[in-house]
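Exercise: predict the fold of this chain.
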Amino acid sequence: MTDKVLRRSLSEMQGALFEMSGVEGYDSETFIRVFMHSKISEGLDSDFDYTQWAGKEYIMERMKEEYPEGFSKQGIVFDSETLYWAGYLYRYWHFYTGESSKVIYKQADAQTVNAMYYGYHTLDIEMAIDRLKEAKKK
């Protein structure tokens, strides 16, 4: 598997994971924040971690076991397209810049990504990341 295919596959898996959180009715802002600061996300950031080969269902179960605070059903659930895009964006961002999930989240938290979805989701993913980084600088 080429590096480009692996990166796309992991980005798609994380997008599907975020989308699954919405289908299950979890508060999106809380889930995303907890995920982006988790050891699981840290593992996905590494050059190799077995979690990279696990499916979204396995990762969701691990998240529930290790981070129950991320699974509140009291709050706002983002729409499924926004959740998928957010998950994809965050994982691709890591590959594009080499920044950790925690550093990425500091630049564009869940509220920011949700607010920017409609204006940015049709852009090339790298252009969307560049614009989010630029907006943070201002």
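Check your answer against the key: The helical segments are 3-23, 28-36, 39-45, 56-66, 80-97, 101-107, 110-120, 125-137.
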